[in-house]
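1st attempt posting a full record on here, be nice pls
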Amino acid sequence: MSKKIIIFCLFLMLMAFAGSAWAASESSSNNTYGTGAGLSLTTGGYNSFFGAYAGCDTTTGVHNTFLGYEVGYNTTTGSYNTFLGYEAGVDNTTGTGNVFLGFCAGFNETGSEKLYIANSQTSNPLIYGEFDNKILSTPGYLGVGTQAPVRQVHLVGDNATFRMDRTKDTAAFLMVRTDTSGNPQKTFVVGTNSSGSGVGTFVINDLGTAVSGNGARRMTIANDGSVTFTGNVYANSFTPSSLAYKDNVRTYENALDTVNKLRGVRFDWKDGGKPAVGLIAEEVEKVVPEVVAHNDGNATGVNYSSLVGVLVEAVKEQQAEVDSLKEEVAQLKAMLQNK
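the predicted structure (as tokens):
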């Protein structure tokens, strides 16, 4: 082989080697591949930069993994970042602990400990997170068991149940109605309390416009199934009363005497101060215990509708007395007229 050919081949090999050395490098602590990748590295170590100008401005940053064109281009001292996708994290200069995945993901994010999964320069990515604050959010709909959710959280499946465990009272949902600016207008807490295995209550509390605290109790379902409301209860329905549901039916006796033992009262509700009229449960319990509700052994409410039967019989007894008196008056009038 002629010297010219040998020299030419050596020249091509040197050019190829030089070109490869410029586009890629590998050391004990850094790996770079691509034009300008890791171009400014000084003391930074344990970095992996793959793609043209990936980590181009990185100087002292460590433990970064950048994959894609101009990924982490302006990162200088930022460390422990993972950027994947065209120009992902391009303006994050000093941030640490970030994970940006997708085309231009985290493009304008300059902070630390952030998670972006996106396919644009948006600041409102499909998935956003904060590792230090344990936050994960999405602006869209989340489907579990479905690829077509119709609400922000949509569960589908034979076991589609939301479960929440908490070791303190109240294990609850906080439902907040806000205005268009996000300011709370009304808040209710719906949850459960427990004092032991198999023993507990279901509660609804009114927090007003607050989003924390105990609030005012509005409803309690006790362990025995009894329900207590702090306000009035209205129901546009009929109470079951068919004979088919009843045994041992008998007419209520001495109803007028029963009514005479009851005391009607005027009062103001402690919660809210609203004036009202009614009966006292503790007093009614001594006369008609069947119509009194209890919670933990204490009289708490009166089933006013059940008193209708007592009142009907009381009116009938009173009417019988009136009729008897009318008859006596008629007899006395007749006697007087005959004299």
